[in-house]
Design goal:
Elements lengths: L2 H4 L2 H4 L6 H4 L7 H29 L10 H21 L1 H4 L4 H8 L11 H10 L9 H6 L3 H11 L4 H10 L15 H12 L7 H10 L10 H12 L4 H35 L11 H10 L4 H5 L15 H6 L5
Helix pairs in contact: 4-5, 4-8, 5-15, 8-10, 11-14, 12-13, 15-16
The protein binds protoporphyrin IX containing FE.
Length: 331
């Protein structure tokens, strides 16, 4: 094996054809512009590779708690978050190019745009962003090659990672009647503890609590009643050994949402200083489009909302001893 053969450097290092050179008006900063996009795409590839492998683990009908599966999923999601941190940070490299430098080759790119990054769109879709939740739907389809738009529409019909997580949460066995006798369900106890924890000005939170945890499924929610209940239970009792990895999974999904949002805002601010209020090379309103997309394209927000319904540890309902034993390593 030889270094450059193994890494196929011949292909990678010869894939930077400056459009400005082709047109005979060399623009020095176009090299940076190409390399930074290519390096983002390489990292998107790794993120997708990890995310798909976590998807495959969660797609199983049953996850064996006594196997490495969940720990592997945790490690890979953690890797995704570390890559995303780098992707946020490296926007500064691009900002060493000034708005004036960019203008030297910007018009040659039209109508291409990072908006057409299929790997980014596949990632959003795989995680759980639905077509109808996207900002600027008409813009969305008009800017992609028809085969690309078609493949995103097809992917959007598949089960998303968020749905797999929902199904996995629904299977959490700790509300079963073998632990809680009829009329003595965990949520009856917890509802009382939550009601007690609310100050005078917060009493209206009970309505939301009842809708989310005591009622039927609400329209438009991404997590089902069963999954919301399980997620809250995991948040509360996360210090028990068996619940540590499930808690980490939820937390890492929140990290991914937050880091993607951070990237979107970082990218938007960079775009603002680069092109001001002009429209993008892809024809959107530019900063305005990016701001709306950043606000709307959260995927795992419903996990973050659950924190409104926590109570202090000393108020937690006492778990039946049979259940407590199940939450430890020896079962
Ligand atoms: C000078 C640098 C850049 C400028 C001025 C810029 C500008 C824009 C603009 C205006 C849009 C909205 C669509 C449009 O009208 O074109 C957009 C979208 C996007 N850009 Fe960039 N961009 C830059 C660099 C990058 C880089 C380095 C990446 C990394 C892959 C990137 C990835 C994206 C993605 C993924 C979108 C879609 C975002 C979404 O739909 O939420 N951009 N960009």
């Amino acid at each position: 094996m030889y270094y450059s053969d193994y890494l196929q450097l011949n292909s990678i290092l010869n894939a930077q054809d400056l459009e400005s050179d082709k047109q005979g008006k060399h623009a020095h900063d176009e090299m940076l512009f190409i390399i930074i996009h290519q390096s983002y795409e390489l990292w998107f590839k790794q993120i997708l590779f990890e995310t798909k492998s976590v998807y495959d683990i969660l797609a199983k009908e049953e996850i064996n708690d006594n196997s490495p599966e969940l720990q592997v999923a945790v490690n890979r999601l953690h890797r995704v978050t570390e890559i995303l941190r780098v992707l946020v940070d490296k926007v500064t490299i691009l900002e060493t190019m000034s708005a004036q430098d960019f203008l030297d080759f910007r018009d040659l790119l039209r109508p291409a745009s990072g908006f057409q990054s299929m790997q980014f769109k596949v990632l959003e879709t795989l995680l759980g962003l639905k077509i109808e939740e996207r900002h600027g739907q008409e813009y969305f389809t008009s800017q992609l090659r028809s085969e690309d738009a078609k493949s995103i529409y097809t992917l959007a019909k598949e089960t998303t990672l968020l749905q797999l997580v929902n199904n996995w949460l629904e299977r959490m066995p700790y509300f079963s009647e073998s632990f809680w006798h009829e009329g003595n369900h965990f949520f009856d106890h917890y509802r009382a503890a939550y009601a007690q924890s609310l100050g005078e000005g917060e009493k209206q939170n009970m309505q939301a609590f009842d809708e989310l945890f005591m009622g039927e499924n609400l329209d438009g929610r991404k997590l089902s009643l069963k999954a919301r209940r399980a997620a809250l239970f995991i948040m509360l009792y996360r210090d028990y050994p068996i619940l540590q990895n499930p808690y980490r999974i939820m937390n890492l999904l929140l990290d991914i949402d937050e880091l993607l949002a951070t990237w979107r805002w970082r990218h938007m601010n960079m775009v603002h200083r680069m092109i001001g209020n002009r429209s993008g090379t892809g024809g959107s309103t530019g900063k305005g489009y990016l701001r709306e997309a950043a606000m709307k394209h959260y995927i795992f927000q419903e996990f973050a909302e659950l924190t409104s319904f926590l109570v202090e540890r000393s108020k937690f309902p006492q778990l039946p001893p049979t259940l407590e034993a199940k939450l430890g390593f020896t079962r």
